[in-house]
# Entry
Amino acid sequence: MNIGEAATRSGVSAKMIRYYESIGLITPPARTAAQYRVYAADDVHTLRFVRRSRDLGFSLEETRELLALWRDKSRASADVKNLAMAHVRELEEKAAELKAMADTLRHLATHCHGDHRPDCPILADFAATPSAQAKA
Amino acid sequence: MNIGEAATRSGVSAKMIRYYESIGLITPPARTAAQYRVYAADDVHTLRFVRRSRDLGFSLEETRELLALWRDKSRASADVKNLAMAHVRELEEKAAELKAMADTLRHLATHCHGDHRPDCPILADFAATPSAQAKA
DNA sequence: ATAAGGTTTCCCATCATGGGAAGGTCAAGG
DNA sequence: CCTTGACCTTCCCATGATGGGAAACCTTAT
# Structure
């Protein structure tokens, strides 16, 4: 199948498939006489794997490791679990950070009248010295 | 004061100060005969404002709007509040997304032995067809 | 034969930040 | 007066993952 079909089937854009190939994440497929890339069903599996990994927030470098583990039939499941749990912690940290920002801002907003008057504690906080600021 | 001192006092790197100037976020300061940028105390306030805005997850474009509102003494606080609350919702959405990813992954990991054996439901899920996957 | 649509490579843009080079400047101390 | 070191200047490049688009080529169906 051509790259377009592989893209549709895997949910990875053709643009990204070429990019993944260029950085060595996936192996270059065969080519037709006219240089068209030709993919097999198995390549679509790999692409779906990558897609899934990306959807779960793994970077391409992490995805590369996961792919290697996936292909290594003799790897220990502990290796996979460690990588996954480390990632879980990162995700949870980032989520907590965003939540903290939202909480700070929401708190500031509750003290803002939100009417036609100009004075607003949100901007006042932004302009204040760091020591006097609401904690993020 | 020179850019270095402004950077230290505001918590914005000299590199970023120059960048903010280049994109018109902040106004170009005066220069010495030798082309050194000269900042006033007020410029440091502005930089701190930007820093604070960034720390709370606003993009530079959003920061630009906030700065404009800050400087516009006649703006309605409702405008600020609307902008802030829209951002709060964005932050909370992103946080929820990350949390969902973490939950999915954590769930998959609980079913992974995490020992020397090779079989691992995490990778199995990654390789599965989308319809059969744990929900993110 | 021609048109439509797929494919190729290549370059550019995003967003916010950092790194580093090559060169100019300033202040302190010998 | 000159050197040294710490600043400053501009300019270019890199990141990470993705998209946009151009110019050229291929394929397939009419």
Chain A has a mean pLDDT of 93.
